[in-house]
Amino acid sequence: MPARRGPAPNPSSVRRNKDHALGARKLSGRSGVGRELPKALGITTSGAKRFWMTWSQAPQTEDWMDTDWAELEIVTKLVDAFYLGDMKLAGEIRQRVGKWGATTEDRARLRMSFDKQVRGEAAQAPEPTSPADMDVELYKLLSEG
Fold first, then answer.
1. What predicted TM-score, i.e. pTM, was given to this entire model?
2. 126: Cβ–Cβ under 8 A, 6 or more apart, which residues?
3. Containing domain of residue 57, as a range?
């Protein structure tokens, strides 16, 4: 048996960081109805409109308050400017959507998870796609270089 370094662990020890300060979040995984994009925002690009639609219907919005929706409005304005060519906004947009759990890594950091049964049901119903779904603005933006 190898020699043990240091004192033996206390059998009744408790991990201090066991739960996140806000606790782990279990989301249903269902897309919500969402909110309509406010016309007063003056969003012009289809990319920003798609961004709003995606986030307004995301499972993360289940318990959003008015302040969260106001933040989505601000970020949608940034996304609109990004699609109009202001590439400097990419980092700011990424930082803000990361706080909502945009990527798998973000959700892990936020201790956010989705109900696997609901996710499985959603995966069984494929969404129709067509060439018209391709975002022409993004293609133009990326091919300008």
1. 0.65
2. none
3. 42-122
69 domain-assigned:
yes
Tokens of 126: 């494929």
* Residue 8: DSSP 8-state: P
For the chain, how many structural domains are there in total? 1
In a domain, 134, yes or no: no
DSSP 54-103: HHHTSGGGGG--HHHHHHHHHHHHHHHHHHTT-GGGHHHHHHHHHTTT-S
pLDDT (tens digit, 9 = 90+) per residue, 97-114?
Answer: 999 999 999 988 888 877
Contact 55, 100 (CB under 8 A): yes
Phi/psi-derived region of residue 7, left when phi > 0, alpha when psi is between -120 and 50, beta in every other case: beta
